[in-house]
Amino acid sequence: MRKEKPTEKKAKRWERTNVANLLKLAPGGGYYARVIVNGKQKWRSLKTKIFSVAKLRLADFEREERAKAKRGADAGAKIDGYKCGDLLALFLTEVSVSTETRDASKARIKTSAKALLKTWPDFADTDVRQITSARCREWAQLAQTKGTRFVPPGAKRKPANKSMSPSAFNKTLSVLRGVFALAIKHGLIYVDPSEDLTRMTPARKILALPATVQFNKLVEVIATSGACQARDCADLVMLLAHSGMRLGEAALLTWGSVDFDRETVRVTGTETKELKTLSSERDIPLFPGLKAHLLAMHAKAKSTAADRKVLKVFEAQKALTRACELVGVKRMTHHDLRHLFATRCIESGVDIPTVSRWLGHADGGALAMKTYGHLRQEHSKAQAARVVW
């Protein structure tokens, strides 16, 4: 008597439906997809007992399997095996040759990749097809509670368990998802097992900005430091604080963009990570402080041709950090000078939507309200205290 093959025995349990490639497990079971690609039969549980849902998932499965077959030769040429370490290496290679990724971003991605391997020790040697959602959640919990256990050079003892900062965790999660996206692209997996993970919400930055007297002292310290470009660094700091421009925007500013007659400055917008669709090219007023500063720079400039850059240096972080230490204020970054501008505007009574337009936001003030809303409330309370009957 001929022995029944496992596939034949299994086939008797299926019920056909009126949709091609869609079968139901009898009796009362869930739906399964069965497609034939390149002569091979592919099965997958659609994990539902609802017919309408099964049809949608079947379509996704069919599309994915045919795409995998189409990419098969290419995938085999690019990826040797299914180890996550191989995929991570390929991901980093693609990032390194990308012309759309800035060098600073490439360095951060490389650092985040190291953090991923630190917090997930067996990740590199794990078959990507064996990674589950549960394993991803386990990694996220460990990363958020124990961190990378990084020991700073020269440290006398290992640090206690320290969770990753929201920013560090989110960047590491992005690298992990980049690896899984690459695996999906090459047909190694069907879904991203990390899709259920949520990004950590960064704590709102507490703005500890200098008072006007302190800021003026900062500029003076920078300008008189004795460095070869001390005055140029001070000019950059003043320009950022009096205009609210991003560092990249200030670097692009030319004398042709400054209209002293109309008292406006044309700012060439740059994209921000907060607003990816932002087109922030805009005209801002020549605020009194900004006008005085630009007139002084104009007077001493060797050339004020329309295509000449206003600034001579495009970075002053070391000078700014040193000046903060000498003046006795919290360390500031270039971007903090943008916060300083917005804060001064709000304290002067300018409404947030207007400040938002000056900053180059295209969201009607939502981001500015999130960042500076508490300042408006504090300013309002301070002004209310001056009302005396």
UniProtKB/TrEMBL annotation:
Name of the protein described by the UniProt record: Tyr recombinase domain-containing protein
Single biological process term from Gene Ontology: DNA recombination
Provenance organism: Ereboglobus luteus
Coiled-coil regions listed in the entry: none
Gene3D superfamilies: 1.10.150.130, Intergrase catalytic core
Family: Belongs to the 'phage' integrase family.
Residue ranges of every copy of the Tyr recombinase domain listed in the record: 204-385
Keywords from the UniProt entry: DNA recombination, DNA-binding
Pfam families membership: Phage_integrase
GO-annotated molecular function: DNA binding
InterPro entries given in the database record: DNA_brk_join_enz, Integrase-like_cat_sf, Integrase_catalytic, Integrase_recombinase_N, Tyrosine_recombinase_XerCD
Ribonucleoprotein recorded as keyword: no
